[in-house]
């Protein structure tokens, strides 16, 4: 029969057009810009921030080829990235395809093919599943968006396709359901506002995820149309997580499915009532809600339970209980604007009081299935939707749900509803969750089998007959297993699941087809800088760190500080920054005079969830200004001397506020906030941007490299393994404090409790006595610094005599230097670890050199990939691998690769091909796979096979050379630029003998070592030297 006609509830005049524009304009008109829209972890985003970020993200998507009408597949967990990607897609007039990120790989491939997705925006670990299609990682999208310009809104109308959601697929392949730009506003006006009476003061927590129809309305549509807020959780929350989030955020509306409510009652039913004091209603949908469970939930929450029913095809609920009318045990009355009719299997209305299948007609029913015209015709008849839900109508107009028509089973010649059997079994005190399905027995007949999750107190009493859901358990949105998928494996646990056959129409769970165990999709592995000193202090608090100069932020502490003192100082600085107003995800530029407090400030920024942006003090103010323009109004943390060159920039509006470590005029001193209480540490998601450094800039303006905790962890772990043999040894480091390599090495040394000597000034006259006093067992610095320190090999006090391990990073190191360093150690078996890589990749190859191997060392050999973490290859034209010994471009594949270049995504994309990163170097591999470096591509000179190789020969033949660099001159001829120790003139005769047998070169140009243009990591800027020589020749 047909329900009584209900006049649609009057709604605000429709704001036709693009959904993203509707929501943005509504937030501005209602003054919601500063109100919180989304909470996740320790962070919150306002409505204004969400819409601004989405507008900028649309530009990123457009840059990846997205055009109006294109389909953009979103395989993401619930997160701000999901919200941003959806709104950005809508803004462009494209169609979002909402996909469960936890589906098996085969299902993802099917959905991408079925929709013809032009771009796949993926969560962590999923990129390779969509190989062959345009892909964009969510972390890359979120890193690029802040620096992009807002995209214009593409005009749309209420009936323009907006998104596609897939049905559960319980009876076959899932079907794509199309919804339009006008539907979400209707969900809110008819259900959110009319039925649930949501206001801007509400706080929502939805167990159902955003890629499902139920979760999409609860956690996306309702908050953005009402000005309220929602708590996002990127994975299925446990009962303990639910009550913690409800209590912390004062959640007022809790949305869940019955099975999750059952778990909540079972695990948090006693002594946790106060956690739920803020909840004003619990909404249930997705499966039948037993009346006894509803009563238990009400008792626990102290709030009514409002049961609803909806479908993917309807978009959200079409029947619902509300505050005005709540009939427990039913799914409520039709939502205003919807009609419900009960029909028999022939499609005719049933008499009053009889059960039938629910047919629905309403304003948000889908116009059809994607690419499924025949199924659309069967399911949508005359504007009515066949839901396949069975129900009967109560006298008050409510509907009592009786299960799915698909669930009816023929057992012993009788049609049985598994739902009715489940209801009886669920009443037993020993049963927490149960699903009943028909399973074929040995004679081919069907028998009902109950799969029971017992209540914990009696679990042992049920013995081996209880069913414990496994990781591949087929489920719908949440809750019990899909009964159509379970029986195949359950009936025959000793054999592989087979394709369906027979009248029962059993389906094979796709997850069970994949034999290998899949790793967790969302890993928590991450290297976080914020707590690194505190964790070290907790383990090795009395170990000391020695500096070569006092800290600028705390000069009174002197130069010998324990791990504990440094951990306290990091927390003190984080309290000052928090009190000044720095908040999670905001960018904080650390740009000051070179000193160890750069490290402490970086850790303090990271500790409160903000993103440190490390700029070298060696950068020219004009270059620093160009980098600031790529950021989004960052904070500037500096000192007076550095600020003098940046005053115009600081006043230009490029920075939010300027904080100074000293009392520089015109800046706010950090000391103003001394004594502020440090907040609890904030831990960002491991895939979110966590650190921004810059490339060396040897060929021009540096690029801003975006790191996250997960990629940093993938750099840390192999280095931790390499450092294990020297754990606990005193370590002396001279490295750039704005380079990511320093922080990974620091993490390893702090973990092992090594006493540290941190060196700012590499002058051998000062370094020698310092090392002689502390006798380090580990020394790491840049290759050019090691050249400078060769004289320490025979310096007074034998400062290198106790070194067991040297570390040289990123550039090749001259064999002569290696031999001298290893010869200076009096340890029995010292070694040097050479790491080859870039800021963008971290180390991708390594080799260990000993005294014995140093005698025959080839300076061009940089070793092998790091097993389990990196791979290297050499390619020629077309990106094909070349045979051993053949020169080509060096490429690396690494888990430690940065997320993107901030403000230069196209440059990042050019260097990345199917996961392989172009290093910009030319080289070759030996037959055994060792990698040899020839030259940087930009430094190649036609007349010289390898500039670096010739330089190694000259360094070995001329002991007086401190450095030699070969660059192209004005006519591309090789020009050697030499630096001689002691600044004495180069002996022409010795030079002539040393160059015998080498390629012809111009006369050498002798420069002072201090005049060589270098990067912050002491890399020689060859391109700059060539430019200087060319301009000098022209002059």
Automatic annotation (TrEMBL):
Any Gene Ontology biological process: secondary metabolite biosynthetic process
SUPFAM superfamilies: Acetyl-CoA synthetase-like (SSF56801)
Keywords recorded for this protein, A-Z: Ligase
Stretches assigned to the AMP-dependent synthetase/ligase domain: 31-370, 556-901
Domain AMP-binding enzyme C-terminal: 420-456
InterPro entries assigned: AMP-bd_C, AMP-bd_C_sf, AMP-binding_CS, AMP-dep_synth/lig_dom, ANL_N_sf
Keyword Ligase: yes
EC identifiers of the protein: 6.2.1.-
GO molecular function annotations of the record: acid-thiol ligase activity
Region Disordered, annotated ranges: 348-367, 454-516
Keyword Cell wall biogenesis/degradation included in the entry's annotation: no
Protein name from the UniProt record: p-hydroxybenzoic acid-AMP ligase FadD22
Species in which this protein is naturally found: Streptomyces chartreusis NRRL 3882
Taxonomic placement: Bacteria, Bacillati, Actinomycetota, Actinomycetes, Kitasatosporales
């Amino acid at each position: 029969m047909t329900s009584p006609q209900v006049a649609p509830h009057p709604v605000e005049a429709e704001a036709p057009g693009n959904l993203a524009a509707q929501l943005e304009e509504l937030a501005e008109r209602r003054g919601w810009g500063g109100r919180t829209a989304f909470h996740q972890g320790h962070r919150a985003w306002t409505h204004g921030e969400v819409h601004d970020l989405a507008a900028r993200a649309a530009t990123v998507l457009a840059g990846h080829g997205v055009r109006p009408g294109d389909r953009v597949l979103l395989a993401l967990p619930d997160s701000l990235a999901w919200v941003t990607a959806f709104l950005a897609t809508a803004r462009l007039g494209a169609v979002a395809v909402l996909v469960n990120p936890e589906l098996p790989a085969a299902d993802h491939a099917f959905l991408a093919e079925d929709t013809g997705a032009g771009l796949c925006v993926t969560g962590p670990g999923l990129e390779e599943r969509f190989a062959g299609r345009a892909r964009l990682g969510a972390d890359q999208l979120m890193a690029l968006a802040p620096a992009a310009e807002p995209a214009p809104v593409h005009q749309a109308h209420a009936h323009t396709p907006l998104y596609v959601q897939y049905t559960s697929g319980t009876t076959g392949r899932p079907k794509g359901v199309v919804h339009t730009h006008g539907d979400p506003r209707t969900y809110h006006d008819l259900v959110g506002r009319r039925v649930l009476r949501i206001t801007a003061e509400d706080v929502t927590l939805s167990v159902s995820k955003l890629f499902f129809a139920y979760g999409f309305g609860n956690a996306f549509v309702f908050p953005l149309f009402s000005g309220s807020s929602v708590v996002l959780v990127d994975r299925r929350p446990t009962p303990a997580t639910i009550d913690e989030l409800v209590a912390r955020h004062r959640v007022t509306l809790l949305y869940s499915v019955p099975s999750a409510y059952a778990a909540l009652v079972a695990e948090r039913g006693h002594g946790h009532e106060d956690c739920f004091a803020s909840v004003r209603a619990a909404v249930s949908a997705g499966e039948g809600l037993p009346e006894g469970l509803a009563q238990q939930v009400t008792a626990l929450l102290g709030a009514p339970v409002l049961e609803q029913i909806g479908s993917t095809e309807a978009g959200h609920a079409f029947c619902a209980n509300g505050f005005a009318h709540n009939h427990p045990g039913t799914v409520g009355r039709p939502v205003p604007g919807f009609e419900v009719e009960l029909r028999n299997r022939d499609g005719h209305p049933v008499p009053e009081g009889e059960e039938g299948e629910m047919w629905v007609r309403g304003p948000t029913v889908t116009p059809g299935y994607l690419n499924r015209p025949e199924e659309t015709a069967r399911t949508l008849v005359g504007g009515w939707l066949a839901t396949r839900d069975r129900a009967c109508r109560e006298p008050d107009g409510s509907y009592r749900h009786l299960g799915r028509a698909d669930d009816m089973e023929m057992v012993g010649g009788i049609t049985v509803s598994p739902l009715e059997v489940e209801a009886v079994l669920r009443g037993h005190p020993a049963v927490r969750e149960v699903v009943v399905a028909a399973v074929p027995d040995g004679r081919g007949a069907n028998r009902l089998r109950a799969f029971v999750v017992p209540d914990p107190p009696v679990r042992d009493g049920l013995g081996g007959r209880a069913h414990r859901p496994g990781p591949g358990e087929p489920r719908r949105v949440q809750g019990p297993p899909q009964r159509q998928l379970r029986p195949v494996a359950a009936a025959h646990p000793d054999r592989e699941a087979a394709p369906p056959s027979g009248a029962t129409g059993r389906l094979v769970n796709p997850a069970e087809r994949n034999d290998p165990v899949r790793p967790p999709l969302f890993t928590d592995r991450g290297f976080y800088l914020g707590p690194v000193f505190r964790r070290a202090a907790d383990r090795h608090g009395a170990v000391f760190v020695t500096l070569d100069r006092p800290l600028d932020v705390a000069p009174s502490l002197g130069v010998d500080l324990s791990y504990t003192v440094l951990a306290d100082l990091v927390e003190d600085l984080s309290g000052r920054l928090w009190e000044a107003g720095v908040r999670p995800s905001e960018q904080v530029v650390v740009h000051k005079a070179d000193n160890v407090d750069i490290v402490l400030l970086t850790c303090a920024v990271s500790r409160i969830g903000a993103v440190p942006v490390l700029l070298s003090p060696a950068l020219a103010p004009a270059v620093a200004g160009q980098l600031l323009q790529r950021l989004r109004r960052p904070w500037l943390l500096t000192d007076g001397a550095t600020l003098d060159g940046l005053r115009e920039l600081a006043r230009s509006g490029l920075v939010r506020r300027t904080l100074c470590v000293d009392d520089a005029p015109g800046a706010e001193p950090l000391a103003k906030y001394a004594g502020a209480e440090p907040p609890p540490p904030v831990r960002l998601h491991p895939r979110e941007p966590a650190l921004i450094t810059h490339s060396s800039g040897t060929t021009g303006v540096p690029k801003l490299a975006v790191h996250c905790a997960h990629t940093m962890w993938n750099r840390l772990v192999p280095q931790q393994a390499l450092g294990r043999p020297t754990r606990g040894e005193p370590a002396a480091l001279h490295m750039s404090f704005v380079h990511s390599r320093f922080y990974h090495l620091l993490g390893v040394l702090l973990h092992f409790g090594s006493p540290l000597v941190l060196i700012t000034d590499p002058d051998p006259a000062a370094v020698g006595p310092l090392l002689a006093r502390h006798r380090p067992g580990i020394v790491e610095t840049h290759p050019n610094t090691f050249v400078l320190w060769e004289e320490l090999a025979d310096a007074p006090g034998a400062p290198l005599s106790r070194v067991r391990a040297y570390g040289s990073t990123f550039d090749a190191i001259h064999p002569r230097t290696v031999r001298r360093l290893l010869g200076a150690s009096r340890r029995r078996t010292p070694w040097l670890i050479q790491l080859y890589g870039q800021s963008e990749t971290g180390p991708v190859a390594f080799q260990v050199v000993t005294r014995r191997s140093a005698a025959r060392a080839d300076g061009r050999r940089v070793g092998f990939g790091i097993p389990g973490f990196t791979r290297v290859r050499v390619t020629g034209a077309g990106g094909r691998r070349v045979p051993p010994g053949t020169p080509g471009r060096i490429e690396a594949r690494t888990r430690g690769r940065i997320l993107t270049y901030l403000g230069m995504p196209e440059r990042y994309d050019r260097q990345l091909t199917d996961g392989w990163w172009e290093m910009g170097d030319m080289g070759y591999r030996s037959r055994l796979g060792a990698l040899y470096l020839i030259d940087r591509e930009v430094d190649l000179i036609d007349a010289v096979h390898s500039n670096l190789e010739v330089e190694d020969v000259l360094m070995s033949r001329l002991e007086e050379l401190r450095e030699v660099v070969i660059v192209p001159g004005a006519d591309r001829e090789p020009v050697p630029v030499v630096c001689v120790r002691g600044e004495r003139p180069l002996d022409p005769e010795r030079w002539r003998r040393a160059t015998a047998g080498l390629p012809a070169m111009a006369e050498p140009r002798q420069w002072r070592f201090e005049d060589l243009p270098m990067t912050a990591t002491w890399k020689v800027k060859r391109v700059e030297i060539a430019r200087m020589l060319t301009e000098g020749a022209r002059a």
